[in-house]
Amino acid sequence: MSEPQSASPPTVATAQTVEEVVRRQLTTALGGRRGMLEAAVPTIAFTALWLTTRELELALAVGVGAAVLLLVVRLVQRSSVQFVLNALFGIGIGWLFVTLAARRGGSEDEQALAYFLPGILYNSGYFVVMAFTCLIGWPLVGFMVGSVTGDPTAWHADKQVVRLCARLTWLLALPCLLRAVVQGPIWLGGNSGAIDADAAIAALGVLKIALGWPIQLAALAAMLWLLGRNRTPVSPLAA
User: Fold this and answer.
1) Domain segments of the chain as ranges
2) 22: closest CA among 236, 170, 238, 224?
3) What is the pTM of this model?
4) CA distance to 105, 179, 210, per residue, from 139 (Å)
């Protein structure tokens, strides 16, 4: 009796090029338009309620409530809850930072500003990590390719693939850098008094949305354009 052959990962079986693998992985990672919308709704709810009512706990509660409602819809539809959970986790971290600011004796304005700090820190850290992987020659997107070829590091043997993955990783990193560079000074200005706190909170709320999925879609479009120019065979990676 012959030994059973191990099955190839389904994505590799149907994808012929590295570009096709990365396109599929990116679509899954971003969650499409619905996933991006679900990520934006809690922030819109929080910002709108805070600016109109000045009730911080109400604004946080409505933001969480919006995320929970989206989660219930996903559960009823029996579809993936990943992106709603991401949004719920994000607003939960924001609430934690607000609570920490309150315990330190921060004013309501400082507490409201604290809600936006995790996003700025996240984008700063994510940019540093992705930039570092490119600078050391192991771009992060390469591991997306490796995750579906059965060997997480085989792609690194092909310098053409490494160059492609480095360009794609930089394109993923640039939106994070833009968010941190634009939002960071506003957050600092709001906390220091250089900028009116309400104006800073409103600007951060708008920018969190404007620099969210629209910028991510622009980066994705640039990545798809780059991917459309090349045809790097995927089969050698799986060998």
Assistant:
1) 31-115, 120-239
2) 224
3) 0.74
4) 42, 21, 27
